[in-house]
Amino acid sequence: MHKEELIALHRIMAEIKDDFEQRNPACSFSDYYAQNVDPSQVHKSKMEHKHAIFVLGYEIAAAMQDVEYSSSSRIAARMKELAQKTETEIENNPEKYSS
Known about the structure:
The chain is mostly helical. It has helices spanning 3-23, 30-35, 46-65, 72-92, 94-97.
């Protein structure tokens, strides 16, 4: 996926996050906010946006569990796994993935 496509996906997922936050202020997206990468930050690296997408995907899936989606726990687990994998890749290659 190209960086522009990842940013577009990131933007859509951020809109979903915003909707969850409006509907339920108790929804927590603290791990996503801790990343300090939002879709408007086009100067951030492709890998940073990819990692933010996985973290956000995990937290959206976790928020969906409260609404009774049975498969959301599997989605949440997979997103968390992918987020950890990209985080490790960023940490192991900081010069390659720096902004």
